[in-house]
Each structure stands twice: as structure tokens, then as C-alpha cells.
Design brief:
By secondary structure, the chain is mainly beta. The chain is built from six helices and 25 strands.
């Protein structure tokens, strides 16, 4: 009877055996099978096309440089013709430039190539460590010509590594010159300030050059732009491989005697209208970190001179220093400094100050009267820890919090002073934020 369990089972059995239902199930299965066969056919056809496809050779440097990272890693065939612009010194690599661009060529063979050689390079694409490169399997010299013209660029053009491997020309002032190792070979290394940032210039053809006379010269340099990068392929700095000493033109030579110029008051450094060249200052020494920095004062103005000299300069020494004025965290500093002692005087007497007076506002402007000066002030030691090879104290004076930095060589039991009020004497150093606004200070003891 309707509604009974037996009746319901019978109704479902009739439906299962219905010719229409059976037909529908067969049709649905056929559609699914047809779709699957079609999909398999598409995949098979695509695979067949890929197996039969020939990837064309990359025949211009620009084409190789345009590859995305994953494409450069696919060992795409490369065959280019260009001019050797520089030898990097790393293994057997060199730079080649055609009419479209320049690129680094890495290779395993040791075929001799020279700057100016016109070469045919056959190989594969490679990812490189910053930009795409050519992994050469064969290099053939077909002639010798003049290097391509170097394109004039500014510091702004170079940011981000856009000119990596290109032959370029820059102008700037030499800040330092020294002999360093370049892939186990000697090279003259120049730091050239381009007006906005510096570039490391490497010259292997330097025999007989009095490179110290290059310091403070205005130069024009031609070579191949290289990029300093980290392990994540990120741009961190600029370099240049200079193949020939004739690629360095001295536009304005440096003074014969770096100390021969007039003396600039410390308080006048980096004022309006000053040039990029080094300046001379004079004062009384107050603090030194041998091999790193010397602090001096003339009256109420102080400055930090970055110097690699390890000659001991005791407090109270009369000194002259020359260096390149650069913007520091807040106040100017003199970089790449030379220092000479010219006499002795009584040591500078520290100025007794309050912490709240170190950074203040007057008429809406920052007022920072004690930066880089020898001062003394009181504070309560709140904590002590080690940081960067120094002992650092955190101190409080009223609502103000500041730090004191002590060398590890100081025989101080840090825990003994926690909670104590101490009188500190040292160099007041003001720290700025990313916009160079003064935000904190510390005392160098």
C-alpha cells in the first residue's frame, strides 16, 4: 500500500529500471568521457608542440638583459657580437657591449681577450647575481676596434643599478685612494663623490701613479658600471671597472699641500655656497677612537673627524685637520680626514649642562647648542648592557632619558652603578631621525 516500506522500495526499483533514466545516465557518462578525451587531446597536442619547438637564439645584449629572472635561468641560447669593454678580474669574466647594451660574460675557457677586441660570444643565458649574464661556451675574436663611447651619467641615473655593465662616464671629486685586493689582484681603489653619493672606482693599470695626489682632485672617469649587491640580489652600492689609466682625466688638480689652504671655523662648515672639496679646520682635541675618529673643538663648536689614523692624539693637543665636509646624523662631519699635531694646550674644560637643554625649541626652530662638545651632566643609571663592543648605560635626569657609551677597556663594574646618580664627562653626540631632525643624544666617555 502507498506509504509502506515495501511500496517505496518497489517504486525506486521501477525508476532505476526506467529506459529514460538509463539513457540519461549513459548520455551523462558519454559527455564526461568525451570532455576528458578532449582535454587529454589538448594536453597531448600542446606537449607535442613544445617538444618540436625551437627557441631562437638571443642575438642582442638588450634581449638577454630583458629576460625575467625565471627566463634567464632557462639556459636560453645566446649568440651576440660586440666589443670587450673591461675585464672584471673575477675568474675569466669580462664585459661586452653591442649597439644595444652591455653585459657581463662568464666563461670557463681561458681564451685571451683584451679591451677593444670585437668578439663573437656563443653560450646560454644566466641569472647572474644581480642582472642577467651570458654563460659563454665559446668566444671568438674577430677584430680590434676602439671601445664604444661612454655615456655621461649622473648619480641619480645610477641608482637602482640601471646602468649595470654599461660603459659610462662620471664626474666627481676623489675622496680617498688606496691599494686593495680585487679578486686576489692589486687594484687602485678610488672613492669618487658624484654629488649625491659615492662610487668605488677600480683601476688595475696603476703602476707609477702617485695616487695620493689624486685625492681632492676633480676627475672625469670612463669605465664599465658595476653594482654592489647583497645575497638577495638587491642593489646596495656602485662601482666602476676602469680598464686604462687614460680613462681618468684630471679636470681640476688638488692642492700640492693639503694643509696649505686657509682655515675654516668649525661653525662655518657646510654653510651656504661652499664647494665639494675638503676643508681645513683647527682646534683642541677632546676625544679619540684611534683608527676611527677624532673630536676637536674651536671655542664652543666641535666636530667629529673620521680618520683611519692610529696615531695617538691626547686631549689638549693642538691639531689641524683636513677632510671632506659631509652631513652626519645631525651636525656635519669631516670624512677621510688627515690630522697633524701642531702643538699642545690646556685641555678643554667641560661645560656643565642639563639634559633638557641639549635638544630644545626656540622660535619654532631646533636649538642644539652642545653637539660634539665636551660636557658634564648628572644622571641616574637605570640599566646597563653591551652593544657593538661598548658598554652602554641608560640614564635618566628628570623626564629626560639618554645614553652613555663606555669602552670595554674601562674597568667599570656595571651592576655597582645601577640606581646611582653619577656625574659624567664626555662628548655630547646628538642623533637625528631619517630627516636629520634631532631626537636623542648620548655621551661618549
Amino acid at each position: 500500500m502507498p506509504g509502506s516500506k515495501v511500496y517505496e522500495q518497489a517504486r525506486q526499483e521501477r525508476r532505476r529500471l526506467s529506459p529514460m533514466a538509463a539513457t540519461n545516465r549513459v548520455d551523462l557518462a558519454f559527455v564526461r568521457l568525451s570532455a576528458l578525451i578532449g582535454l587529454v587531446s589538448v594536453f597531448a597536442a600542446t606537449a607535442g608542440q613544445l617538444r618540436g619547438q625551437t627557441v631562437p637564439d638571443l642575438t642582442t645584449v638588450r634581449g638577454v638583459r630583458a629576460l625575467e629572472l625565471y627566463q634567464a635561468r632557462q639556459d636560453r641560447p645566446v649568440k651576440v657580437r660586440g666589443i670587450v669593454t673591461a675585464l672584471s678580474g673575477w675568474r675569466n669574466s669580462f664585459f661586452v657591449q653591442d649597439s644595444t647594451a652591455g653585459i657581463s660574460v662568464d666563461r670557463t675557457d681561458k681564451a685571451d681577450v683584451q679591451v677593444g677586441d670585437e668578439v663573437e660570444v656563443t653560450g646560454r643565458s644566466g641569472a647572474g647575481m644581480f642582472a642577467p649574464v651570458i654563460l659563454a661556451s665559446y668566444v671568438r675574436v674577430v677584430g680590434h676596434v676602439s671601445p664604444p663611447l661612454a655615456r655621461r651619467v649622473t648619480y641619480g641615473d645610477l641608482l637602482g643599478g640601471r646602468e649595470d655593465s654599461q660603459r659610462i662616464e662620471v664626474s666627481g671629486v676623489v675622496h680617498s685612494a688606496r691599494i686593495t685586493k680585487l679578486f686576489e689582484r692589486d687594484a687602485l681603489t678610488l672613492s669618487v663623490e658624484l654629488g649625491g653619493g659615492s662610487m668605488t672606482v677600480l683601476l688595475q693599470d696603476f703602476a707609477g701613479i702617485d695616487y695620493n695626489r689624486l685625492i681632492d682632485s676633480t676627475v672625469r672617469v670612463r669605465g664599465v658600471c658595476s653594482t654592489q649587491f647583497n645575497q638577495k640580489r638587491q642593489f646596495v652600492g656602485l662601482g666602476m671597472f676602469v680598464p686604462d689609466r687614460r680613462d681618468i682625466d684630471i679636470v681640476q688638480p688638488a692642492e700640492d699641500d693639503p694643509f696649505g689652504g686657509s682655515t675654516t671655523l668649525i661653525g662655518n662648515i657646510l654653510q651656504f655656497g661652499q664647494a665639494q672639496h675638503r676643508v681645513k679646520v683647527a682646534g683642541i682635541s677632546t676625544y679619540q677612537v684611534p683608527g676611527r675618529a677624532l673630536y676637536i673643538q674651536d671655542g664652543n663648536d666641535g666636530i667629529r673627524i673620521q680618520s683611519s689614523s692610529t696615531e695617538l692624539v691626547v686631549p689638549g693637543s693642538k691639531v689641524e685637520a683636513v677632510g671632506f665636509p659631509m652631513r652626519g646624523e645631525y651636525a656635519p662631519v669631516l670624512k677621510d680626514g688627515l690630522v697633524r699635531i701642531v702643538g699642545h694646550a690646556s685641555p678643554i674644560k667641560p661645560v656643565r649642562i642639563r639634559a633638557l637643554d641639549v635638544i630644545s625649541q626656540q622660535m619654532g626652530f631646533n636649538h642644539v647648542p652642545y653637539d660634539e662638545q665636551l660636557v658634564s651632566l648628572e644622571g641616574t643609571v637605570a640599566e646597563s648592557h653591551l652593544q657593538g663592543g661598548q658598554r652602554v648605560w641608560i640614564l635618566r635626569q628628570g623626564s629626560e632619558v639618554f645614553e652613555a657609551h663606555l669602552p670595554l677597556s674601562a674597568a667599570v663594574d656595571a651592576t655597582e652603578y645601577i640606581g646611582s646618580v653619577v656625574l659624567l664627562t664626555g662628548i655630547c653626540t646628538v642623533h637625528g631621525d631619517s630627516d636629520h631632525n634631532p631626537v636623542s643624544f648620548s655621551i661618549l666617555l
